[in-house]
Amino acid sequence: MASKDQSNFHDFLPLMAEKLGGDGLIGELCNGFRLLSDSDKGVITFESLKKNAACLGLEELSDEDLLGMLKEGDFDGDGALNQMEFCVLMFRLSPDLMGQSLFLLEEALLQDSNFS
Ligand SMILES: [Ca+2]
């Protein structure tokens, strides 16, 4: 994993949350999802993640890290991350943020009744 002086999305999220507030953060996460996803399929696949990770400054992550992210976030087991899986994963990867903004995440989850 990245060492302390490299920018890392784990560390980046709480800062974003502070700056943007909850709604802004969800918006940013959705933007992140759009950047990373396969525009044809509308989900994040390993291929789209690998291709687009550099856009988010994640080029330091190895194939193994990327696959780990996918596995970790993939709740329904289809091998890809949909938008809500991605947002949940980002929150889970960032425990500090989780504490601050859990209610916002729950709100977002409630709004997406298709999420199961
Ligand atoms: Ca999935």
From TrEMBL:
Gene Ontology MF, one: calcium ion binding
All copies of the EF-hand domain together span: 61-96
Q: Where in the sequence is the signal peptide annotated?
A: none
An example Pfam family from this entry, by short name, is: EF-hand_8
The UniProt entry, under SUPFAM superfamilies, shows: EF-hand (SSF47473)
- Mind telling me which Gene3D superfamilies this protein's record contains? EF-hand
Q: Which InterPro entries match?
A: EF-hand-dom_pair (IPR011992), EF_Hand_1_Ca_BS (IPR018247), EF_hand_dom (IPR002048), KIC/PBP1/KRP1 (IPR044205)
Keywords, comma-separated and alphabetical: Calcium
- Descriptive protein name: EF-hand domain-containing protein
